[in-house]
Amino acid sequence: MSELSGFTIGVTADRRRDELAALLERRGARVVIAPALRIVPLPDDAELRDATRRCLAAPPDVVVANTGIGMRGWLEAAEGWGLGDALRGVLADAYLVARGPKARGAARAAGLLDQWSPDSESCDEVLFHLMDRGVRGDVIAVQLHGDQQPEFCAALRAAGAEVIEVPVYRWAPPLDPAPLQRLVDLVHGRLIDAVTFTSAPAAQALLDAAGPARDACLEALRTDVVAACVGAVTAAPLVELDVPVIVPSRARLGGLVRSLVDELPKRAVTLQVAGHELTLRGHAAVVDGELKPLAPAPMAVLRALSTRAGRVLSRAALLPSLPRGADEHAVEMAVARLRAGLGGSAFVQTVVKRGYRLPVD
Predict the structure, then answer these.
(1) Exposed, middle or buried by CB within 10 Å (0-12, 13-18, 19+), for 276?
(2) pLDDT of residue 336
(3) How confident is the model at residue 121 (pLDDT cuts 50, 70, 90)?
(4) Interacting residues of 13 by C-beta distance below 8 A, sequence separation 6+
(5) What is the spatial distance between Cα 333 and Cα 339, in angstroms, rounded to a whole number?
(6) Residue ranges making up the domain that contains 127
(7) Would you say residue 18 lies in a domain?
């Protein structure tokens, strides 16, 4: 087995989703790809062209680079308009603040040197730094990160700065909403072990897609489904909703995967059943070291029996663990499939006229 064998993990990213999925699959995870949002570049957008011309007409004293994709997109759009060299010259003369390592990397790839970057990658820390430095009378260009930043820009204006907002791209719903809705159903039904987020808007988009099931999804994320965020900024909307999150020490995809490798195996439950070592690991059981994937219904019955290991549960008691609309016959079928999946009837005992139990040693 690999580190994440048996676990199912949702990927809400659009850009770099294949890279993240490959990293997880390489470690044995089953991956559900469901982009919560997509990035729509605005290379021909009139607002971006107007903001660029304003920067060239009144060179900014300070430039805030929020994202790597945004800085690259801005410079590429300027190249397309024949303004690339002029824009790089203006940016090179400004006090350049890179909100995070991706923005810094994009700036340096263009030959620009950032003067300051926050440890937290937080817009609030950027704002505090600029306020301490003093902004009255300055022209500040803010490369936006998909959404408007009204509070950030309003605070700078209130402190006496002229702010040029630079919209390079915007967030939009996915072209096909079906995968995201499927992911919502998996979270709601606790049929997935973790969901990864690489942007704060993606976390909000997942909850918005849940609609009436929003509270149920939040409860699942607070208890049984791990919310794994690439950084503290991404995690902020979930933290505000009292959702526990895991965040790597460095905001990288590799760090995100390592955090899951550390966290998910801790949640596995191991029992000694009928002379065998049985471990419940995500959507699979491990019997004496052999991984045995199970369908949702048998796995749900196994989890229910494991919570009362050794005790008898009636068909009626097991019924709530199955999808709505199931009856007691469905419980019997799930038990039969569970026995077949685990490798024999000895793993689940029938107690006549009472129900089923795991014969825990």
Answers:
(1) middle
(2) 95
(3) confident
(4) 20, 35, 196, 197, 198, 199, 202
(5) 10
(6) 40-171
(7) yes
What residue spans of the chain are helical by DSSP H? 17-26, 46-57, 68-80, 84-93, 101-109, 123-133, 150-158, 178-188, 200-210, 214-223, 232-240, 253-263, 296-307, 315-318, 328-342
The Cα 350–Cα 339 span in angstroms is: 11
Total number of domains in the chain: 3
Q: Supply the DSSP symbol for 43.
A: T
Q: According to the model, what pLDDT value does residue 1 have?
A: 78
State the amino acid at position 74 in one-letter form: W
Same domain, 33 and 179: yes
Dihedral sign (CA 44, 45, 47, 51): negative
Please state, in angstroms and rounded to a whole number, the distance separating the CA atoms of residues 164 and 51: 6
* pTM of the entire predicted model: 0.80
The answer to whether residue 2 sits within a structural domain is no
pLDDT in tens, 6-34: 999 999 999 889 999 999 999 999 999 99
User: Is the distance from CB of 220 to CB of 213 less than 8 angstroms?
Assistant: no
* Helices 84-93 and 68-80: angle between axes, nearest 10 degrees: 140
Q: Which of 36-50, 160-174, 215-229, 245-259 has the lowest mean pLDDT?
A: 36-50
What pLDDT, on the 0 to 100 scale, is given for residue 44? 66
The tokens for 10 are 């949702």
Residue 83's domain is classified under what CATH number?
3.40.50.10090
